[in-house]
Specification:
Helix content: 10-25%
Mean pLDDT: 77
Structural class: alpha/beta
Order of helices and strands: EEEHEHEEHEE
Low-confidence stretches: 1-40
Number of strands: 8
Length: 171
């Protein structure tokens, strides 16, 4: 296994806006993290700009010591904004807001959107909203886009990953 700090190539499946699958090799330190008892990116505090329990669970698999700080940014869609630009903008905004409070930290911002035929679905606000969303998506192929931004005093990196999801026609 590689030592932390060495670059490990990772193959990611990325789908562009036309639905064409592409392969991209990405350098990542994340795969080396589980072997390290305490990882705090070059002795910097790691902060997840989110209050998502699922994101905290996933980050906890890579980084033992981190804290969660919600960013509270306006998540309105800007007229004419594509879904990939939308999730990228929000992940960057969330990371930037939290990084302003913790200028020496490594901040991770993320945003995810469900997209069907170019339409962004907002997070359901209630059980009935969730049921309506699932009803609309049943029997359909849609995309889940996630924008991810890593921000520190030394670097800023953003990515958007798209996953195609096919729901069965359920009742």
């Amino acid at each position: 296994m590689a030592q932390f700090g060495s670059w490990v190539p990772v193959e990611l499946g990325i789908t562009d806006n036309d639905g064409v699958a592409q392969r991209r090799d990405v350098a990542s330190r994340a795969l080396c993290a589980p072997a390290i008892p305490t990882l705090s990116w070059y002795d910097r505090m790691v902060i997840l700009a989110s209050q998502s329990p699922r994101r905290a669970e996933l980050l906890g698999r890579l980084v033992q010591e981190f804290q969660c700080e919600p960013a509270h940014v306006d998540e309105s869609i800007i007229s004419g904004e594509t879904p990939s630009v939308y999730v990228s903008r929000l992940s960057q905004a969330k990371a930037s807001v939290v990084a302003a409070r913790y200028p020496d930290a490594v901040v991770i911002g993320a945003d995810t959107a469900v997209v069907l035929r170019g339409q962004i679905f907002n997070k359901p606000e209630s059980t009935s909203d969730a049921r309506a969303m699932l009803h609309t998506l049943r029997g359909e192929s849609h995309q889940v886009l996630t924008g991810l931004t890593l921000l520190s005093p030394a670097f800023c990196h953003s990515e958007v990953v798209s996953t195609n999801v096919c729901f069965a026609a359920v009742s």
